[in-house]
Amino acid sequence: MLTSTLTIYTVLMLITFFSLEKGVELDHHWVEFDDVRYHIQVSMKNPHLLLLSVSLPTPSSETIFVRGLPFGAIEAIKAAYGNLVQILDPPRDGYNLTLKFNLAKLPANPDQKHAFMVKVASIREVVLGAPLRVILQHLAARTVAPDLDPPVALVHRPNECFFLFPQADKVTVVYPMRFNDSIDIVLATSFLQEFVEARRTAGLHNTPPCSWSVTPPLEIKGVPSDALSANAGFVTFVIYPRHVEGHKLDRTVWNLSTFHAYVSYHVKCSEGFMHTRMRRRVESLIQALDRAKPDAENSKKTSFNRSFKRLGLKDSSTN
């Protein structure tokens, strides 16, 4: 699956080094897949304070946001970062969340510092995956999260969401797959059908059951039609307690949160591969046509070197 921590982790480690050791003022923006935007600031006046602002995808009307964040996000931030972070209220303009980290309180042990910076780099998973984590934690305990009426809609792309139907023994996850480009729709449909078939191969029996359909599954029949406008079908996963036990929980949360981006990545790779094959094929055809052309200089030499001898009557009689 996809990973997002490498780039942000590299930036954070550079900022930590330069701000603490060099006292350099930094102001850095970047955008991640699914329109998640980051802004990191460190000032010369307070080089030990790092401001990290995060902008999330625009939620659809079906999702539950509390003060601009998915439900459970505040609790997840406090649990992940403890007293090393302060949540600014209100956040910076144009962002859903602004966190203030005190770099002077980072652990002195290099391994502990590394582990904490990886947590900071996983801010996307902590915030967007918070409601999903709550539901799956209850699944691990064979219970259902209270005050949640199924199906539960969770944002994962701008104005788009996926749906969860939690039960005590399983959680059904449904993705309406939408793509803008007609070629992407065809490639995604083919990829998803192969993806479902691959689940049936040997060695993958312990993975969550997966299915694909053109029509919405029964679990989300009551969802408004606007939220079900999928042009590449619907993908359904069934998550059981064994899939969220212990360390498996973090990976399951990340994989489910970024499934659409995972499909989009492979669709674009397939499209790029086909374009490369097509270009190579065209180049080989052009080379074949070039080889088939007659050599103009050789043809001219041949025509000019030809000579004809006129035969007289004597020569003809001799022959």
Automatic annotation (TrEMBL):
Q: What does this protein do?
A: Functions as actin-binding component of the Arp2/3 complex which is involved in regulation of actin polymerization and together with an activating nucleation-promoting factor (NPF) mediates the formation of branched actin networks.
Indicate the secretion signal residues.
1-23
State the family named in the UniProt similarity comment for this chain.
Answer: Belongs to the ARPC2 family.
Q: How is the subunit organization of this protein annotated in UniProt?
A: Component of the Arp2/3 complex.
Please list the GO terms describing molecular function: actin filament binding; structural constituent of cytoskeleton
What is the organism field in this record?
Answer: Vigna unguiculata (Cowpea)
- Protein localization: Cytoplasm, Cytoskeleton
A single GO BP: Arp2/3 complex-mediated actin nucleation
Q: Which Gene Ontology CC terms are recorded?
A: Arp2/3 protein complex
Grouped into one coarse class, the protein's main location is cytoplasm
Q: Tell whether Cytoplasm is among the UniProt keywords.
A: yes
Record protein name field: Arp2/3 complex 34 kDa subunit
Q: Which UniProt keywords are given for this protein, alphabetically ordered? A: Actin-binding, Cytoplasm, Cytoskeleton, Signal
